[in-house]
């Protein structure tokens, strides 16, 4: 079991544990008791509830807490105001008080929407993240970005609201469908492309991921624990320096500008988030190559990682490039009319640019078919 700590550099010096390991469910009750005196509302979705219903009593074995489940439909398209309202209704019906607790038990969708509900319910109550996908364990559960989607774009209603603990049990990953494993690994690979910019302790995570690809895909416990904890270290290091994304945190959006636009243009129901991000990362590498910010050798190396993991790298023909470009225009990463873009600038290094020409981006999108 690996126990990391994230301590934010903000004035209130928030800190919380990130616990990573196998079969750690039984130890979770300690956290429930620390953050709730009476009640817990566990938010999950129909798929996960069906898979893990029998496991829940194990988590609460050592507590006398009153547990309510709020089971929402499964899917990105439900990360919206209607579902948020349903979660808040669950909390009101359960008479959840200020000293009680929300638990997000699921992937990034559950974590984001439950965190947002926790942020606004009674002006904010405690919540714990129990992420059950790779993507959520390495990214969305850490750092306090909580949000829902709107018809105008992804994650446009939200808050920065930190959980009290993140508990990542690798056992949950055994039931993940293959497609979801790959989607999470796309965010894992993202960390290898930004590693040097995240922190000075460089372990060459990209090489580790290349060398251990087969073991990672076979769910090797030891390698997976190392992989997930390295991602958490990198994310924690960035968020600690810049909780509210006024600077360095933007690098975590590497691959996301084109990625989010692809998700929106395909109405969130064609690609998974990670698939869209893998195409977005390919796009960012292409832009950098054209602007001569990286060498052809590094471009080829990055391409070899994307190929090794067999990531999606193409946009389907029936999706209009114009629609993707238009979706970028709505993206909140625009500042003063210029497009902001996180681009690779060297081995495992990225930089945020504020003035990337829209024509170049449009041309690169057209190359991604
Ligand atoms: P998800 O939450 O939709 O989960 C993917 C699928 O896996 C779902 O069908 C879910 O029911 C299923 N699932 C989850 N756990 C399972 C398990 N253990 N066994 C079997 N099936 C399981 O998707 P995701 O990839 O986890 O998260 C994507 C979301 O995360 C997006 O909404 C994205 O915007 C958000 N996100 C947020 C942040 C952040 O910082 N807050 C960062 C990255 C992504
Ligand atoms: N996943 C982007 C962030 O947490 O900032």
The span between the termini is: 43 Å
Sequence stretches where pLDDT stays below 50 over 5 or more residues: none
The counted number of beta strands is: 11
Rg, Å, rounded: 20 Å
Separate helix tally: 15
Rounded average pLDDT: 93
Largest sheet: 7 strands, mixed
Physical arrangement of strands within the biggest beta sheet: 1-2-9-6-5-3-4
Provide the helix percentage. Answer: 40-55%
Name the beta content range. Answer: 15-25%
Secondary-structure element series: EEHEHHEHEHEHEEEHHHHHHHHEEH
Name the overall outline.
globular
- Give me the secondary-structure category: alpha/beta
Query: Which compounds are bound in this model?
Result: nicotinamide-adenine-dinucleotide, glycine
What does this structure look like?
This protein is α/β, with parallel strands linked by helices and 369 residues long. The protein is built from 15 helices and eleven strands. The strands form three sheets. The chain has a seven-stranded mixed β-sheet, with helices on both faces. A two-stranded antiparallel sheet has the order 7-8. A two-stranded antiparallel ribbon has the order 10-11. A hairpin with a 2-residue loop joins β10 and β11. α7 crosses α10 (221-241) and α14 (321-330) crosses α15 (358-367). Bound molecules: nicotinamide-adenine-dinucleotide and glycine. Nicotinamide-adenine-dinucleotide binds at residues 45, 47-48, 51, 74, 76, 79, 106-110, 112, 132-133, 135-136, 139-140, 143, 145, 154-155, 172, 175-176, 180, 183, 273-274.
Structure keywords:
alpha/beta, two-stranded antiparallel ribbon, 15 helices, 11 strands, binds nicotinamide-adenine-dinucleotide, binds glycine
């Amino acid at each position: 079991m690996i126990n990391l700590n994230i301590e934010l550099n903000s004035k209130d010096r928030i800190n919380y544990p990130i616990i990573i390991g196998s079969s750690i469910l039984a130890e979770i009750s300690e956290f429930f008791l620390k953050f709730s005196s009476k009640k817990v509302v566990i938010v999950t979705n129909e798929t996960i509830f069906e898979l893990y219903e029998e496991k829940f009593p194990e988590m609460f074995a050592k507590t006398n807490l009153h547990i309510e489940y709020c089971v929402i439909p499964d899917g990105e398209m439900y990360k919206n105001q209607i579902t948020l309202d349903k979660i808040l209704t669950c909390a009101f019906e359960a008479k959840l008080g200020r000293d009680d607790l929300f638990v997000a038990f699921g992937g990034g969708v559950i974590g984001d929407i439950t965190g947002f509900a926790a942020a606004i319910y009674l002006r904010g109550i405690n919540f714990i993240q129990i992420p059950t996908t790779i993507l959520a364990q390495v990214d969305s559960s850490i750092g306090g970005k909580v949000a829902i989607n709107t018809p105008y774009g992804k994650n446009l209603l939200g808050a920065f609201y930190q959980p009290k603990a993140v508990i990542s049990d690798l056992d949950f990953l055994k039931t993940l469908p293959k497609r979801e494993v790959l989607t999470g690994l796309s965010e894992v690979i993202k960390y290898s492309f930004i590693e040097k910019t995240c922190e000075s302790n460089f372990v060459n995570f990209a090489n580790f991921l290349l060398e251990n690809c087969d073991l990672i895909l076979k769910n090797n416990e030891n390698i997976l624990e190392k992989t997930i904890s390295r991602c958490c270290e990198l994310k924690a290091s960035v968020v600690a320096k810049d909780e509210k994304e006024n600077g360095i945190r933007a690098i975590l959006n590497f691959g996301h500008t084109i990625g989010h636009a692809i998700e929106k243009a395909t109405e969130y129901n064609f690609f998974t988030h990670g698939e869209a991000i893998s195409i977005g990362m390919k796009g960012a590498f292409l832009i950098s190559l054209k602007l001569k910010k990286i060498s052809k050798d590094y471009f080829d190396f990055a391409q070899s990682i994307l190929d090794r993991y067999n990531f999606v790298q193409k946009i389907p023909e029936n999706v209009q490039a114009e629609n993707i470009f238009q979706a970028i225009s709505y993206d909140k990463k625009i500042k003063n009319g210029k497009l902001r873009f996180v681009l690779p600038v060297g081995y495992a290094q990225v930089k945020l640019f504020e003035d990337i020409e829209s024509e170049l981006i449009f041309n690169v999108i057209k190359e991604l078919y």
